[in-house]
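Researcher: Please predict.
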Amino acid sequence: MDGWTADTAKSCRKQPYSAIFRRLDFRFEHVRFDIADHGCSKMRCCQVGRGYLDEKRVGLQRYWGEEVHFTQDQLQAIADALADTSEGLTGTEIGFLLQTCKIMDTDPAMTKRHRLYNAFAHEQNQSKERTRILAFIRKAMKPTRFARETARFEPMRANLNRALAFVGMSVDATGTLGSATRAGTLGEAERRARDLRADLLSRGVHPDVLSFCKEELLHDNYFHAVLEAVKSVADKVRRRTGLMDDGAALVDRAFSGSPPMLAINALRTKSEQDEQKGFSNLLKGTFGMFRNPAAHEAKINWTISKDDAEDLLSLVSLIHRRIDAATMPPRV
């Protein structure tokens, strides 16, 4: 510190205001520091407690080893999670949060993901730190924001935590942003994706299932790949029927009734009608296992082995094929 020693710091305390210590509460990113300001007029760094109070606040972060920037890839992953098409923030929410956090909305006319990434990148380039971006994440994930749409919180938190895992952070069930064990390298995820895809190809699984064998879903374990594959089944039923429901309500409206909106066979015999009911129950069980909002929190960290993932994805593949082949009986 250019010869700035503890003895030099002690000499500063002999100045008129040094006898009165005023405690200040600084919040640097997700770490809280309580430090003492003794009014040193030299505007240098004085030894206080564990370390040094720097005239530039980012200097304290660097001194303690705190990261002050996100990489481009990290920013992109965070923006993609927060602005996810189906489970992320709306355009209106993004605009409001950017304004609240005093982040310039550089490209409001662009798609949500690009808009948010560009705003984050511009902010970090200008400020040389990520403090306001972290403030955006905290405000976006406050549980009170989801009071009227509670089902949105957990899927959004899961998507965001997959991105934050690579920077050693996570948002807990209370919406608090904190430190976490940094996830493994993308190389591990790439290996998982490659091996899983190869095994599923040998099983002849449906192409719609293979699309979920990608790195960003496999950095932790296989749970998120299976979860997204199951969600794709509901998306397909909605596309085919025009319904907007989810879970058991979607299955009942699509596969029940006389005739149902989707029929997996001719429904002429008792056996065929029982098969239709059995398929409907299979769908409900699958959705209930992975998509039940009440149980979602406990399953975010549900560890699934590779063998279990392959069996579950093969089941999802069977469901996809039956839905593809299903007919829409004329409704009289």
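Model: Residues 1-65, 293-300 have pLDDT under 50 and may be disordered.
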